[in-house]
Every structure is written in structure tokens, then in C-alpha cells.
Amino acid sequence: MNPTHYPVQPAQVQGREGLPGAAPVQYTTVNIPAEPPKDHIIWSLCCFVYSNPCCLGLAALIFSIKARDRKVLGDLNGAQVYASTARCLNIWSTALVFCIILLSIIVTIITSAQASQAIRRYNNYQSG
User: Does this model's pTM top 0.70?
Assistant: First the structure.
């Protein structure tokens, strides 16, 4: 990124003129345009299609679309608010689905271990 493409505004700082032999100091301010906020539309679509617990994926998708609309209109503050809400909903949706998957794996392992023990006990009872 070349900073010479941005508008430059020279600014003089006062307060050093009283020093003997001191020249006035000049600073240059570079105005960098603000980066538009991310709308998290892809993440919201994935949460909506693949993991939609308690309709969090749908809500995140709606807020992502609102953030994109605000960004197109030039309202970066409104877009940031909607994008932040969409991000929060996506995090909750992803975390909830991860917990559900982890819990189902744990329950499956425990159930299969108990079933295996019950089958062994039944076979030992039948043979004895």
C-alpha cells in the first residue's frame, strides 16, 4: 500500500519557537479511508444451512443481510452494529452445535459401553 495515494494535510506544531536555533516542526497527517465492516454473510449461510439451533442461523443471516444493506447505503456505523450482532449469533450457533455434537458422541460412547457390558453379563449368566 503506497501512502502517497492518500490526501496529505500538513500541520504545524507550535511551542518550539522559543528555543534558540530551533526550526518549527512540521508533521504530516495521512488520512486512510476506513475499511467497511465485515458482514459475515458466508458464516451466517453456513450456520443457517448446516446448523440452525433455535433459529440462531436464520437470525444471523437476517442481521448479515441488514449489515450488507447498510454498507451499500454508506452507513458504516449501522453496518458495524448489525455485523456485530450477526457475528455474536453465529458464535452462539456454532458453539451450541459443537456442544450438541460433542454431547451426542459422549452419549453414544457411554451407551455402547454399557450395552457391551450388559451383553457380556447376559452371556456369562447364560453359560453359568
Answer: no
